[in-house]
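The pair is quoted verbatim below.
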Amino acid sequence: MPTRTGEPASLDALHHLRDVLDAAMRVAGDLANDPLLSRLLEAFRLMPMEDRSIVVTAIEREVQARRLSRATEAVTGQAMHPNPNARLYVRSHENTVPRNLLERDELTIAMLAAFRVTPILEVPEIHAEWLDATRAALKHLEPATRAVVSRLMREGLALAEAVEAAATVGHAKAS
């Protein structure tokens, strides 16, 4: 039976199928040639199954907020931007540290490594982020733990001042 175009129905169906297949091939080609999509899919594939729903929900929430921000930027004067340092995972720690992890030599090496990277915290934009991150971290601590941190930081400051004073005296004597 001929169709409106005058062609047999089977030929019309074949043309329609060809158009659908052409469109599907274009979409598949676009997806296959998108390096960012490949990276995203690979990261998702490697992600633990139990994390996927939570991470996808977080991404959906952030994309929705970004789209809303773009729609209201002119009115609110505020804009959202991707954070290249964003994290989807939070770190958690056990309450106790095995004593063997705190042997003096290992502790000295760990403290020295930490102290050596501190000058970067004086870079203005990094310093501002460090202040915010430190404040946020301290708010998450129990009061008793926060008190220990405060005491240890005061002791650390006193130690740094004493070592600096001794180095200054030693330097003056050597001159």
In short: The chain has a mean pLDDT of 86. The radius of gyration is 30 Å. Residues 99-174 form one domain.
